[in-house]
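Write out the 3D structure for:
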Amino acid sequence: MQQPAQNDIDTLLEKAKTSGSKEDLSELWKAALNLPQWHFITKHTERLEDRKPFVGVMDNKGWVFVFTDRQKAHEYGKAIKDGGFVDAEGNLMVISMGIEGAIDYVMDLFTKGVYGMRMNELNGWFSPIANLPAIIKHVRQ
C-alpha cells in the first residue's frame, strides 16, 4: 500500500474542514493511519531519559499531541513561546513511533485518563481517544 505524503494529509484536512463530510474525515484518518510513523513533541528536560510525549490540558481534559510528520511537530514546538519544548540552543526533541506502537501508546494513555488526541495542532483535527478503535476499524475495513 502506498503511504500518503504530508501534503496529501494537508489537502485531505482542508477538504474535510471545507466539506464537513464523514467521508472526507474518513479519508483523512485513513491517510493518517497509513503513515509509517506518528510523531510526539516532548517538553525539554535536562535528562534525556525523562522526556516523554507531551500531554497538555485543554478544557480540563488531557490531550496527547500527535503529529503526522516531524516538521509539524517542530513548527508547533517553536510556535508556542515559553512552552518548554525548546532548549537554550533552540533545539527541540521529537519522539517518533511506528504507527502500531503509536496507536498502542495512545490507547495506553487513555487507560491512564488522557481524554483525547490532537493531530497536527495549530492546523489539524482532534478526537477523543475512546473513538480511536472505531475509527481504525472503520477506515481499515
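The longest strand covers residues 61-67.
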